Structure formats: C-alpha cells, structure tokens
C-alpha cells in the first residue's frame, strides 16, 4: 500500500513540510500529491515546461492581477505568480488519504464579510444602473470576501478543511490544497476554466445558481429554475463570452456541447462544454483566456474596468486559476486549469479569506445576488466550521436530478433557439459561398472579442479574414470588405477616443465607397453619420434574442446593446445616398440598414443567440460584394 508522503507526517509532527499540493480531480479514486520548490514568474510565458519526460511538470498559482498581461485594467495588489516545480508526484488512494488527514474541527474568530449585505446590495444597484444600463456590458461579477482568523496551526486547519471537502462536497472539478510557503489555498472549484490534452482545448462555462438544502431539493423549484429567463440568459451570455475566447485559441472556434446540470452539496449550476482543436503553446492558451467571464463579465476588457471601479480593491487569487502544465507520452503539451473559486486563502499567520461573487445581469435583484454570494460560499465555509453542512451531503447525492427526464428535457430545450453554427461540428469549406474565394476582409475590433467569432463565421463563408484593434486599424488597401466591429460605450459621446476614431474610420470608408459592414457599436456610429438620432433604451438589450424583420425576412438574432438608432420610415436619403432601414414596428428602433456599399446591423450575427446569424451575414455579403443576394431559403441558410 502506498504510504502518504512526508508532508502530512511533518504537519502532524509540527514541522514545516515545505511546498506541496494535494489535488483530487473530478471522479478520481485517488489524490495526486505534488512536491517541489516554489518560485515566482513575471509572465505566464515564463512558466517552465521542460520536454524531458511525460507527466505533470509545473503547478502555477495565477493571481487575478496577471490579467494585466493582456493590457486589461485591475487594482494591482502585487500578488505574485507562484509556481511549484514538480520534482515528485505520487498517487494516494482516496481512502488512504482520508485516513491520514486530520479529523478535527477548524476553529476561527472574528468572522464576517468585508462588505455587509446592505453595502453589497448598493453596489449591485449601482452596477445595474450605471454599467449595464449605460451600455458598458452585458454582465459583471462583483465579489466580496468573508474574513476570519484561524486558531492554531493554519496548515493543519487547511488539511482538516480539505478532508471535509473531500467527504462532504460533490460535483467539484478539482478539490485541492496548495501550500506554497507564502500562502495556503484550499477549496473545491466546480469549474474547469481551460484544459488542453491530445490537441483538444476545452472550456467549461458554468452559470446560473439554484440554491437548495441538500436532501430537501424541491424538484418543482428546480424545474422552475431551469426555465427562469434570468438564469437561462445568464448562461447564454457566458457561453458567448467563452466562445469568443475559443475563437482565438482553437483553429475553427469552439463547438458547444450540453447544457448539463452540475449538482453540489449546497447548490446546483448549469454548464456547457466547449471543445476545439488547438496547436498553440499551452501558456499562450492560458494567457489568451484570462480570465473566465463567469467570474469577470463581458465584454472582458471593459468588465475589468468595471470591476476596478466598483470593487476598489485587489482580488488576490480570486477569479485566477490553478494551472497544471505537463506533457503526455508523445511529448505534447498538456494543461488543466480550474478557476480559483469556492476557495479559501490562509496566510502563515492565520488570516483567512473566502472570496465569492455574484453575476449581475439586467434581470438581477439585489436580494437575489446577496443570497447567491452566501450560497456559493456555503460549502467552503462549512468545511472551515463557519457554516452548517447541507443535510445528507456526501460523495454521492441521494437523488441525481441530472438523470431526471424532465430535467434533461428542460436542459435540451435551451439549445432549440441557438445558432446551429456553434452547436454542430463544422467541416471546413462546407459553408463556403461561390465567388468569395480569394477575397479579403478586415475586422476592426471595438474592444469586444465577438470579432473573433465573427472572423470564424466570415471565414466559414469563404473570406480570408484579418483582425485589428481600433487604435491601429492599419492600411485599408487590399481588403474587399471592412467590418467595423462591436464594443462597449456610449456612441453619443463626442469626445471618447474610441468613438472619435471609429467615426473617422467609418467616414473615410463611406467617402471612398469601400464595402463596409458595421456591427452593434459600429452600426450605431454609422447610423449617426447617416443622420439618424441615437437613443439609450429604457431597458438594455443585453443578451436578448429576438425575432426581428431584416430586409423583409424575419430573423432570430441576439442583441447586446443599451443604445439604438431610431427612424420614422423604412427608407431615407442620407449624405451617402438612399438607405433602406429595417425597423421595430413598435418604437422605430433600427435593427439593420443598408445602402450603396455599406450595411449595418444592431444585433450580433456571430452570437450563439443568433439562430439566423450566418444567413444574415451571407445575404449582407451578397449585397456588399456585388453578388446576388441569397434568398431566405437559399444556400446560406445553414447556420
């Protein structure tokens, strides 16, 4: 029988065991023990990944501040990027490890949230009104932290908490303890952020939270939760945001699988799985996917600004990741990275932090989001003696509601209105349209990587696509089409640098007659140049699918916008000639417009919410690139 390694014996004897990590992955009958020295790195690219053998080589503890590598804003708290170089790796049977871990209650004092419930509720109100309501994004995650002081040896307390999590929590992707010498992290994270194995990159967005009390799950309440528009749309929005990331790291973007129900001791979540082929260095994959929208928001870059504005304190390791890097038997790189949520951080002096956040969307209520933070923290707090265990918790639930036929039907129904482009495996070239071979498109990104998904759709239709950021779109010569893409912000702002730059770009394109497609923010700015008034909507259209008229055909498309252009007629003559408009019959909101050499759409044809998005794009390409427009039932109707 394998004997538990010396770190546990050292702790029991009151000695410093040195750095180590214990990791149980979902469904495993063993726990991995990693030991070795801990060092720090400045960048993810600096994490070592030697090629002299198979197996785990490096375990990194990635703080939230690492997001600055992508140029994103954060409150910089100076937390280091630490990594354990795996010099020894042992597998310990789960039962044996449980017998070696301390079976003792964790004692703490001075427990309380750093932000009281009423203060957190006020922050929720401000974000809903000032950020989502003003077009800064579709959803944002704002966190708070339970703090306490551990009595006695912090590492012994963390090992005792790990034992309780292994016994009492379920549904975790990783249950773990990492001791670096400078800190201890112990938790049960439900969410894989990103993994790479056998050339396949996978992401696992989880959103939507059903709170329950263990054995007292109310099946009718669960079914109501699965049909709740707020919960459904919340998952759709993070799905879209992680598809944006997959569009960058996977050759053909991500294919969507699911949704599924993830059942835990105190709550249940809904989740999707995304998968795609990848040949990038795993450290680059990690960098390009910092960090999950389920713990930040969308669009990602502006979500980081919003977090900094409203939290006003660093996140330390909350919303970062653990990242296990290695190689397989063929020498190929591997990566497994759970999100650092449902995790306690304990200092050598016993300072305890349990951060937790709620996802704020347009349907959110202050009471609901306050309650969500309590529910999400419950499992870790119970393991630390700061809350009750859920009744009947253990390795397996008394009833698996994921196997219930009605639950499965409710989950399957969520895919019915979504774009088949992202749900079905796509054979390269299957959607390519005649006449587009050799033609090139430039997408100008307005700080929303929806443009990555747009690039995959346009590429699937036959265009060669280049993406550039709005501050430096580069020369326009050599492109058959320029797409002025989406992004956050108020299109009416006359002085915002991004709005000034994109207006100037659109004016240049219109004056030159170069074929131009404008999406969402680009569409709003184009409408303004054509003389249409812009209005802030009474209620934001964030993550909202709708059936709307698009040039005579009803289309199912997804909106992410708080502003819209309005018009009183279906046709107008602007400074660049006649313009055809597709409007909402109720309020005149302009969903789409087109003229000689230009077109704009307020919605996102690339979104997973846009069931007819690929068909809309194909028709617009027919209009813009001197090809006959495809019919509503023609070859383009495959998306």
What does this entry look like structurally?
With 639 residues, this protein is an alpha+beta fold. The chain is built from 15 helices and 30 strands. The strands form 4 sheets. Strands 1, 2, 6, 7, 8, 9, 10, 16, 19 and 20 form a 10-stranded antiparallel β-sheet that branches. Helix 4 packs across helix 9 and helix 5 (219-227) packs parallel to helix 10 (405-413). The radius of gyration is 25 Å and the shape is globular. It starts with 5 loop residues before the first helix and ends in a 15-residue tail after the last helix. The model is unreliable at 627-639 (pLDDT under 50).
Radius of gyration: 25 Å
Count of separate DSSP helical elements: 15
Please bin the fraction of helical residues.
25-40%
Percent range for β-strand residues:
25-35%
Tell me, briefly, the overall form.
Answer: globular
The biggest beta sheet is recorded as: 10 strands, antiparallel
Kindly name the structural category: alpha+beta
Mean pLDDT: 90
Number of strands: 30
Spans of at least 5 consecutive residues with low confidence: 627-639
Distance linking N and C termini: 55 Å
List the helices and strands and how they pair.
Elements: H1 6-12, E1 20-25, E2 30-35, E3 38-41, E4 55-62, E5 81-85, E6 88-93, H2 94-100, E7 108-113, H3 117-132, E8 139-150, H4 154-168, E9 174-179, E10 184-189, E11 192-197, E12 200-203, E13 206-211, H5 219-227, H6 229-249, E14 255-263, E15 267-277, H7 282-288, E16 297-298, H8 300-311, E17 321-327, E18 333-338, E19 343-346, E20 351-360, H9 366-383, H10 405-413, H11 420-423, E21 440-445, H12 450-460, E22 464-469, E23 481-484, H13 497-512, E24 516-519, H14 521-529, E25 534-550, E26 553-565, E27 571-574, E28 577-583, E29 590-595, E30 598-601, H15 613-624
Parallel strand pairs: 21-22, 21-23, 23-24, 24-30
Antiparallel strand pairs: 1-2, 1-9, 2-6, 3-5, 4-5, 4-17, 7-8, 8-16, 8-20, 9-10, 10-19, 11-12, 11-18, 12-15, 13-15, 14-15, 17-18, 19-20, 25-26, 27-28, 28-29, 29-30
């Amino acid at each position: 029988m394998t004997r538990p390694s010396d770190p546990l014996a050292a702790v029991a004897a009151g000695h410093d065991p040195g750095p180590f990590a214990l990791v149980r992955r979902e469904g495993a009958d063993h726990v991995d023990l990693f030991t070795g020295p801990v060092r720090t790195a400045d960048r993810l690219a600096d994490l070592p990944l030697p090629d002299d053998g198979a197996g785990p080589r490096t375990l990194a503890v990635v703080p939230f501040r690492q997001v600055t590598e992508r140029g994103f804003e954060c409150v910089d708290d100076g937390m280091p990027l630490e990594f354990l170089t795996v010099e020894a790796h042992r597998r310990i049977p789960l039962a044996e490890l449980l017998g070696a871990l301390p079976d003792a209650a964790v004692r703490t004092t001075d427990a309380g949230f750093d932000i009281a419930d009423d203060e957190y509720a006020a922050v929720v109100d401000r974000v809903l009104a000032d950020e989502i309501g003003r077009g800064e994004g579709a959803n944002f995650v704002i966190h708070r932290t339970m703090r306490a002081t551990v009595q006695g040896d912090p590492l012994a307390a963390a090992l005792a908490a790990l034992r309780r999590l292994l016994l009492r929590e379920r549904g975790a992707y990783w249950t773990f303890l990492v001791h670096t010498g400078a800190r201890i992290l112990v938790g049960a994270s439900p969410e894989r952020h990103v993994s790479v194995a056998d050339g396949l990159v996978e992401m696992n967005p989880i959103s939507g939270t059903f709170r329950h009390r263990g054995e007292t799950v109310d099946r009718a309440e669960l079914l109501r939760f699965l049909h709740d528009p707020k919960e459904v749309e919340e998952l759709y929005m993070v799905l879209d945001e992680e598809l944006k990331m997959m569009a960058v790291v996977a050759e053909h973007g991500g294919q969507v699988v699911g949704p599924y129900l993830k059942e835990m001791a105190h709550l249940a979540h809904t989740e999707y799985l995304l998968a795609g082929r990848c040949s990038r260095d795993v450290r680059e994959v990690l960098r390009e996917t910092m960090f999950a929208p389920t713990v930040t928001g969308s669009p990602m870059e502006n979500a980081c600004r919003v977090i900094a504005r409203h939290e006003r304190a660093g996140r330390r390791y909350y919303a970062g990741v653990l990242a296990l890097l290695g190689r397989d038997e063929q020498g190929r790189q591997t990566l497994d990275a759970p999100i650092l949520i449902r995790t306690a951080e304990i200092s050598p002096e016993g300072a305890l932090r349990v951060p937790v956040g709620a996802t704020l969307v347009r349907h959110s209520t202050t009471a609901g989001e306050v309650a969500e933070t309590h529910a999400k923290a419950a499992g870790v707090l119970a393991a630390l003696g700061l809350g009750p265990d859920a009744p009947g918790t253990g390795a397996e639930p008394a009833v698996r509601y994921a196997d219930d036929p009605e639950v499965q039907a409710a989950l399957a129904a969520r895919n019915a209105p979504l774009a088949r482009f992202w749900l079905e495996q796509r054979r390269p070239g299957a959607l390519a349209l005649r006449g587009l071979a050799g033609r090139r498109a430039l997408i100008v990104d307005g700080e929303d990587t929806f443009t990555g998904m747009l690039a995959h759709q346009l590429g699937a239709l036959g265009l060669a696509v280049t993406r550039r950021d709005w501050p430096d779109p580069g020369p326009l010569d050599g492109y058959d089409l320029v797409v002025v893409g989406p992004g956050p912000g108020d299109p009416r702002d006359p002085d915002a640098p991004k709005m000034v730059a994109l207006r100037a770009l659109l004016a240049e394109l219109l004056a030159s007659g170069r074929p131009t497609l404008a999406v969402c923010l680009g569409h709003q700015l184009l409408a303004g140049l054509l003389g249409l008034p812009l209005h802030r909507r009474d209620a934001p259209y964030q993550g909202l699918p709708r059936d709307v008229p698009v040039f005579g055909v009803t289309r199912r498309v997804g909106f992410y916008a708080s502003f819209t252009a309005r018009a009183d007629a279906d046709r107008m003559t602007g400074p660049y000639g006649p313009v055809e408009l597709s409007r909402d019959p109720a309020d005149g909101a302009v969903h789409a417009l087109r003229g000689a050499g230009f077109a704009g759409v307020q919605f996102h044809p690339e979104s997973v919410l846009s069931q007819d998005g690929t068909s809309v794009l194909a028709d617009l390409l027919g209009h813009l690139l001197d090809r006959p427009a495809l019919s509503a039932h023609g070859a383009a109707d495959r998306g």
